[in-house]
Amino acid sequence: MxxxxxxxxxxxxxxxxxxxxxxxxxxxxxxxxxxxxxxxASGAVVTKAxxxxxxxxxxxxxxxxxxxxxxxxxxxxxxxxxxxxVEATGFQTTTLNDVRLDPSIGRRVDVSMKVGDAGxxxxxxxxxxxxxxxxASVGQLVTEAQVKSIQLNGRNPxxxxxxxxxxxxxxxxxxxxxxxxNGINVNGARSQESxxxxxxxxxxxxxxxxxxxxxxxxxxxxxxxxxxxSYPAEFGRTSGGQIRIVPKSGTTEFHGSAFEYFRNTVLNAxxxxxxxxxxxxxxxxxxxxxYNQFGWNLNGPVYIPGxxxxxxxxxxxxxxxxxxxxxxxxxxxxxxxTPLMRAGNFSELLGPNIFYGTPVQIVNPSTGASYPxxxxxxxxxxxxxxxxxxxxxxxxSVNPAYNWIDSALYTESQRKDTIVIDYVPAEAHxxxxxxxxxxxxxxxxxxxxxxxxxxxxxRPNQIAVFRYAWTVSPSTVNELTI
Length: 482
Prior knowledge:
Elements: H1 5-8, E1 13-19, E2 32-40, E3 50-55, E4 61-65, E5 71-77, E6 80-87, E7 93-101, E8 107-108, E9 111-113, E10 121-125, E11 138-142, H2 144-149, E12 167-169, E13 184-186, E14 195-198, E15 201-202, E16 221-229, E17 242-247, E18 255-264, H3 272-275, H4 280-283, E19 289-301, E20 315-334, H5 339-342, H6 383-391, E21 404-426, E22 429-444, E23 455-473, E24 476-481
Parallel strand pairs: 2-8, 2-9, 7-10, 14-17
Antiparallel strand pairs: 1-24, 2-5, 3-4, 3-6, 6-7, 11-16, 12-13, 14-15, 16-17, 18-19, 19-20, 20-21, 21-22, 22-23, 23-24
């Protein structure tokens, strides 16, 4: 795939070393942090305890040591499920399972240890429903399990934001949604006032209409985080809410899928309005509707057995493609000049007619005199006026409300290419590259009301993010985002 040079480098944000005493205050990122205090049974702090934080998806470990106040902090942790293991001389080893870290919001976990042999291990199920105390942000996280299981008519993960109170749009979450425009209102704000991001990068058009530049692939989406109010100033760019889409990453095991979802005319009945039409092309069949959504997804480690990444915990990939083919009938109906009118005879306007509610007498614009029977003499006909009337399509219906109707195939298509690469060369370093290459095409047969000037529309968009995070020390972080 190719990218125009002016789209590749969308923005550069260099976060010089920042104090991380407030864990999630560095540049706008979907990474997280973990902090806490190690205590004994009496509530006294435990110093020099070893804390090992294990990423269950990638089998990578991050370590820290509690300081003189018994506290520890680990930053730049990808969101996901973790296991925390705490060891200290004279205390039983304590392991906390199922510790969930949300994107961009740190979590505090205090660990209470019991005196005893370090060879004795205590396992605690931490659970994912702990109260979040590290940020004043009000919002909700739609987890990977929910992204997979909640049925979306059109498979647009953006609409999962409607699970959060205060987030609304014109249709229910179950309504069919194919279009790009987000149309989402957060706490009463206009849709243009909310920010959508993919892996921390803005996912809205920078010009005035504020629509999204693409639709993420559901199978490549890990989480959708909705922040409605009180989020830190680092997020910026918006006076409304934040809808943050976090792509998946590869894991130590290979996972893959292939899918197709479809809807088709042969499964539908005709509508009452179409059955009532006098046009045989409409009353004999339901409107054409053919919707196919198909693709594949593959993720896992990049390794060469016995040579490179032998433990499969350094380099990971995710590749995914999704295609949408949406073909449906587009029916248009209108009022067009009759054959008599095209010859200068407007007598039909003197009686009941489809153009005006009451009879209309036309007059000579130069003298104000009425034309007998609404017929303009041929010598007074304007060639330009006649040409304008003939530019309209010919009447083809006797319906009392309109005299022209047409049904034609409206075709729309999408293609989504997703790439995510994660590289962890050492415990303190993490490099990540994310890409969404999105293409939208349509053929709208009745653009401008009639079938004489169809619209052929091509809309390519790319979002690419490169991030390098270096944890210099528990209190100093350096992050580069392009």
